[in-house]
Specification:
Catalytic activity: (6R)-5,10-methylene-5,6,7,8-tetrahydrofolate + 3-methyl-2-oxobutanoate + H2O = 2-dehydropantoate + (6S)-5,6,7,8-tetrahydrofolate
Radius of gyration: 23 Å
Family: Belongs to the PanB family.
Pathway: Cofactor biosynthesis; (R)-pantothenate biosynthesis; (R)-pantoate from 3-methyl-2-oxobutanoate: step 1/2
Protein name: 3-methyl-2-oxobutanoate hydroxymethyltransferase
Pfam family, one: Pantoate_transf
Strand content: 5-15%
Largest sheet: 8 strands, parallel, barrel
Strand order of the largest sheet: 1-2-3-4-5-6-7-8
Length: about 270
């Protein structure tokens, strides 16, 4: 797609139903992201997410989506200790979860681990810029790459990931001009999130784009629907109809033979 100059849409999915819908919409890449920690599990960050969490949700997505490339995140501290442990956990996401590839955060520091995983025929997507698993070290979710030192390091990180064998690199919260520069330097695709329009593709968190998660709405997210309000309205209408007796009606109910009912009463 990059070679053809075709932009690459990517979204997150965490369950069977959304995976089916993403497949029907012909989304080429679906990410089972550790963002599920915040938008599904209710944590304040992605750090508490475990391997079991990711595997559980990847299984759902794999059952529902038969055509997209399914990428699963390696959670915090499941790949940083040493390359051998990273390889074992990456293998679990494919064997147990049904993912096709894995994604991990970091640049030059993690390149040897990427190389080891790729050597064992597990494709790896990289992730640089703002890496949410490092939120405590960064002091928050702030744009990175506005200083010469930060920008230079992000470029080095992206190049190191490509050299190590990553097939694509996510650029998160990176200034648009820097993303353009990196996208031109890399032969593999860049996938942006809050990184401007010149990346080879874009990824958005499902709950952000559908208006389902309102605890925090990122500036880089575009809301394509307001399902949160739609669902709240439906819940309220349902509750009211139960209370006033207008639901269920005969349409939503089932009948039985009156003769059988009379026999039952005799019994």
């Amino acid at each position: 797609m990059k070679q053809r100059g075709e932009k690459i849409p990517m979204i997150t999915a965490y369950d069977y139903t959304t995976a089916v819908l993403a497949d029907a919409a012909e989304i080429p890449i679906v990410l089972v992201g550790d963002s599920l920690g915040m938008v599904v599990l209710g944590h304040e960050s992605t750090i508490p997410v475990t391997m079991d969490d990711i595997i559980h949700h990847t299984k759902m997505v794999a059952r529902g989506n038969k055509n997209s490339l399914i990428v699963a995140d390696l959670p915090f501290m499941t790949y940083q200790v040493d390359p051998s442990e990273a390889l074992r956990n990456a293998a679990r996401l494919l064997q147990e979860g049904g993912a096709h590839t894995v994604k991990l955060e970091g640049g030059e520091n993690i390149a040897p681990t990427v190389r080891r995983i790729v050597q064992c025929d597990i494709p790896v997507m990289g992730h640089v810029g703002v890496t949410p698993q490092s939120v405590n070290a960064f002091g928050g979710y702030r744009v990175r790459g506005r200083t010469a030192q930060q920008a230079s390091q992000i470029v080095k990180d992206a190049l190191a990931l490509e050299e190590a064998g990553a097939y694509a690199v996510v650029l998160e919260l990176v200034p648009a001009p820097l993303s353009r520069l990196i996208s031109e330097k890399l032969t593999v695709p860049t996938i942006g999130i809050g990184a401007g329009p010149d990346c080879d593709g874009q990824v958005q968190v499902l709950h952000d784009m559908l208006g389902l998660f309102t605890d925090f709405v990122p500036r880089h997210a575009k809301q394509y629907a307001n399902l949160g309000q739609t669902i709240r309205d439906a819940f309220c209408q349902y509750a009211q109809e139960v209370k006033d007796g207008s639901f269920p009606t005969t349409r939503e109910s089932f009948t039985m033979d009156e003769a059988i009912l009379a026999e039952l009463e005799d019994l």
